[in-house]
Amino acid sequence: MKFTVHATDGAARAATLELAHGKVETPVFMPIGTYGAVKAVSPAELLENGTRIILGNTFHLWLRPGPEVIAAHGGLHRFMGWSGPILTDSGGYQVFSLGELRKITEEGVRFASPVNGDRLLLTPEESMRIQRALNADIVMVLDDCTPYPASERETGESMRLSLRWALRCKRWWEDSRREFDAGARAAEGNANALFGIVQGGMVERLRDESLAGLTSIGFDGYAIGGLSVGESKRDKRRILAHTAARLPADKPRYLMGVGTPEDIVEAVAAGIDMFDCVLPTRNARNGWLFTRRGDIKIRNARYRDDTRSLDESCGCYACAHFSRSYLHHLQKVNEILGARLNTLHNLHYYQTLMGELRNAVAERKFADYAEAFREERRKSGKNE
Amino acid sequence: MKFTVHATDGAARAATLELAHGKVETPVFMPIGTYGAVKAVSPAELLENGTRIILGNTFHLWLRPGPEVIAAHGGLHRFMGWSGPILTDSGGYQVFSLGELRKITEEGVRFASPVNGDRLLLTPEESMRIQRALNADIVMVLDDCTPYPASERETGESMRLSLRWALRCKRWWEDSRREFDAGARAAEGNANALFGIVQGGMVERLRDESLAGLTSIGFDGYAIGGLSVGESKRDKRRILAHTAARLPADKPRYLMGVGTPEDIVEAVAAGIDMFDCVLPTRNARNGWLFTRRGDIKIRNARYRDDTRSLDESCGCYACAHFSRSYLHHLQKVNEILGARLNTLHNLHYYQTLMGELRNAVAERKFADYAEAFREERRKSGKNE
Q1: Whose CB among A168, A319, B337, B365 lies 3.0–4.6 Å from A314's, allowing a Cys bridge?
Q2: Chain B: residue whose CA lies nearest to A323
Q3: Which of residues 258-317 of B touch A (CB under 8 A)?
Q4: Is 80 exceeded by the pLDDT of residue B346?
Q5: Which of A313, A310, A305, A353 is nearest to A329 (CA)?
Q6: How does B89-127 read in b/e, with b if 16+ C-beta sit within 10 Å?
Q7: Residue A190: Cβ within 10 Å count
């Protein structure tokens, strides 16, 4: 992995991330491919709408189809027909989301499979082993997702457990890499990057301790975890600004699970390079469409007879060929094509936004761009 | 509408159908676009896989979004983004399928809307009015779908009601056309063709009476209705052979709602030009895939680890990019992309078959082709 910053504007940066399966310009948005597919769209369409890297969910792929099936295809890329870069998460977030059904110990997390009830154990080493089989370009360490709210003491203990797990991930990864690179598959040029995840809840001091621990272990990139977990906007801004500014400047910075278009613009301003979120794809399936002039809920009866395109300034397949009335109709009758057209539009919106953010940084016009963006987004779809 | 037969081989024929929105080579298969969308695929993909004409369901579009919404787009073509020819059915088949919930009189069929319970009345004139708003290239008369089994007397009465309705359809259509052609929309070159439907159940004499009545009214094409309603294969063959041979040779012949690949090859041999069926699209969503070497049920556990493509001889997007294992996985986890890839494949299979049938007739090798087709299809997917 190689990371080169080309331009900065305030804290915002434009960079290139060179990965095993291709180059990625940052700031970048990664659509979510939960089960080895970005829901409702094809790999060809992802490329068309500007997507250059996607996220795969280790937890879901572990349970179905299982890492051995994906390994039989030589990894997730060939399995899902996506030849560009892939980042896989550690599986931790989904396991912790099981709530009462899981138990965290020093060793790892025990839980019952929601698919078939099997008793499973996710350890740092197991997460690495699965992600190695998936053969992602970027691999995430297993971390303990600190619940919100949590006391300072709980947050500190959780963060230190994450640090010990991060070290175990790094060790497994290094050992495995030696073995791996010596083996036949080294010829494929595999060079998965390993990212650490900064935890520490809403406490600056603990965020600093987490980051110091991670950098002393040494990772190819650093993510901020434990945000957008229910905290206030003010807390989120405070921790984001504090942490982003302290992440190593020569490594990619990844804000996990964020967010709305407004969240992304704000985080790019704080120096973040990478994002992932279910919003554009999940909201699309529910008929929630993002546009430059605010969001549109296409099920609304006002769109029943509206023969205009969703957004005349948008070049996506949905906006070029269909009316709001048609998208409204597809949503009302639950047509698969509706989920798909909506997803194409939302991803096109997100990827266009990311391209504009990259340009704004390169041209040192980020503040102006961000202001114009917010102004136009406030022109709600209600007035359309 | 213009219909030109280019070649015949036995009873089989290859022809060109020139319609308001384009030319169609026959024998042709029309995918079903129930709600103004062929389920799971886009208009661009339909064109790519060789589809040249699709079928729209008057009944469903009447209830949702309603003909006035579609008329506001200038017709179904612009509403659904499909610029090629469209055939619409009369709505009759769906209304009769409501069973106890509908009542047939001389006037038409009264029923309660399955969407909102509204009391509705479908008459020959109403079916024409809705199809006029949809502005299809080919419009079907409203007929009474004779139940199966039925006595000869019931069958005769039902067939004669269909004949009286066919005459009302023709009269409304002629009156409306005069008015319509005089109006502004005549400039659009609209020239919807009107097809009659031969009924008469399993009784040759009644089929003949139906056909004589329809040809004396005069239609642009003739369909065979009331087959594939539960009768034996032998009865179906008998009535198909009898009726197809007697349909006017200078008009297109349409076998409604048929069928499997084997059914289609048999019907082309009997002289049929046009087909529609839900099989390729509906079966696709259930994981039932058609191939040259028989059918594959992709949910079967034997495909879990099968890294081969579905059909190596197939050029569709699904076969070119994905493994059986991946399609199996998508089906198991209910991914939208699975329904879509399966639909692309099945439609590609059907359209490739139709192209080969057209070539076989043109080259006067139909019997050889049909024999080789049946032989290869018998090599069931079980051996794959």
Answers
A1: A319
A2: B79
A3: 304-305, 307, 317
A4: yes
A5: A305
A6: bbbbbbbbeeeeebebeeebbbbeeeeeeeebebbbbbb
A7: 18
- Which of A42, A73, A340 is opposite residue B325, by nearest beta carbon? A73
- Candidate list A144, A263, A276, A311, residue with the active-site label: A276
- Cβ of A65 and B322 within 8 Å? no
**Chain-chain contact of B64 with A333 (C-beta, under 8 angstroms):** yes
Spans of chain A below 50 pLDDT: 184, 186-190, 383-384
Two tokens, residue A206? 């603990």
Residue B208 has pLDDT above 60, yes or no: yes
CA distance A74 to A88: 15
pTM confidence score: 0.96
Q: What is the pLDDT of residue B96?
A: 87
Interface test with A, best of B80, B329, B330, B347 (most A CBs within 10 A): B329
Q: Which of B334, B345, B323, B308 is nearest to A64 (CA)?
A: B334
Q: Kindly state the DSSP code that residue A162 receives in the 8-state scheme.
A: H
DSSP B3-72: EEEEEEETTEEEEEEEETTEEEEESEEE-EETTSS-TT--HHHHHHTT---EEE-HHHHHHTT-HHHHHH
Classify the C-alpha dihedral A217-A223-A224-A229 as positive or negative. negative
Find out whether B59 and B111 touch, Cβ atoms under 8 Å.
Answer: no
Give yes or no for residue B382 having a pLDDT over 90. no
Taking the Cβ of residue B339 and every Cβ of chain A, the question of whether any pair is shorter than 8 Å is answered with: yes
Contact check, Cβ <8 Å, A35/B336: no
CA A315 from centre of chain:
24
A114's CB contacts (< 8 A; 6+ apart) are A63, A98, A101
Q: Angle of helix A124-134 relative to helix A152-182, nearest 10 degrees?
A: 50
**Residue B219, CB-side half-sphere exposure with 13 Å CA sphere:** 30
- pLDDT, position B187: 40
Predicted complex ipTM:
0.96
What local confidence, expressed as pLDDT, does residue A180 receive? 65
Q: Which residue of A has its CA nearest to B343?
A: A336
d(CA B181, CA B188): 10
Strand pairing category for A253-255 and A221-224: parallel
Complete DSSP assignment for A218-268: --SEEEE-S-SSS--HHHHHHHHHHHHHHS-TTS-EEETT---HHHHHHHH
Closest CA to B274 of B3, B30, B11: B30
A37 to chain B, any CB pair closer than 8 A? The answer is yes
Residues 62-101 of B with CB under 8 A from A: 64-65, 69, 72-73, 79-81
Peptide bond into B213 cis (omega under 30): no
Residue of A nearest to B79 (CA): A326
> Residue B97: which pLDDT band, with cuts at 50, 70 and 90?
confident
Is A144 a catalytic site residue? no
Query: What digits encode the pLDDT tens for the residues A276-290?
Result: 999 999 999 999 999
Helices (H), B97-203: 124-134, 152-182
Residue among A194, B73, A279 nearest B56 (CA): B73
CA distance B347 to B328: 18
* Cβ <8 Å between A336 and B339: yes
Q: pLDDT tens digit string along B255-292?
A: 999 999 999 999 999 999 999 999 999 999 999 999 99
Q: Which residues of B are catalytic?
A: 89, 276
pLDDT above 70 coverage of chain B, percent: 96
Cis amide linkage into residue B27, ω under 30° from 0:
yes
Provide the CB-side half-sphere exposure for A322 (13 A, CA).
27
- Nearest neighbour of B72 by CB, restricted to A72, A79, A307: A307
Give residue A208's pLDDT: 98
Mean pLDDT of B201-216: 98
SS3 of residue A290 by DSSP: strand
In sequence order, what are the beta bridge partners of A24? A17
